[in-house]
Amino acid sequence: PNTPVSEDCLYMNVVVPRPRPKQAAVMVWIFGGGFYSGTSTLDVYDHRTLVAEENVILVSMQYRV
């Protein structure tokens, strides 16, 4: 895998564009996984691209079901 595996897996990511906008939408993103697999840190879910191209602050979280 391209992401470390750990029991310490409950955390939140907040990605803010640079330069920091005066007004921006906040997008909360919860990754899927079908109760089987998934993580918010996979390369395919790289938030930096979305934040760089759109005027959004992106919030995602790592969770366990």
UniProtKB/TrEMBL annotation:
- Protein encoded by which gene: ace1
> What molecular function does GO assign, one term?
acetylcholinesterase activity
| Similarity annotation | Belongs to the type-B carboxylesterase/lipase family.
Residue ranges constituting the Carboxylesterase type B domain according to the UniProt record:
5-65
PANTHER family reported for this sequence: ACETYLCHOLINESTERASE, ACETYLCHOLINESTERASE 1
What InterPro entries does the database record attribute to this sequence? Answer: AB_hydrolase_fold, AChE-related_enzymes, CarbesteraseB
First-level EC class: hydrolase
- Give the record's GO biological process terms: acetylcholine catabolic process; choline metabolic process
Pfam hit, one = COesterase
Enzyme nomenclature, EC number: 3.1.1.7
Please identify the protein, giving its name as recorded. Answer: Acetylcholinesterase
Record keywords, A-Z: Glycoprotein, Hydrolase, Serine esterase
Instruction: Report the GO terms under cellular component.
Output: extracellular space; plasma membrane
- Organism (species): Nilaparvata lugens
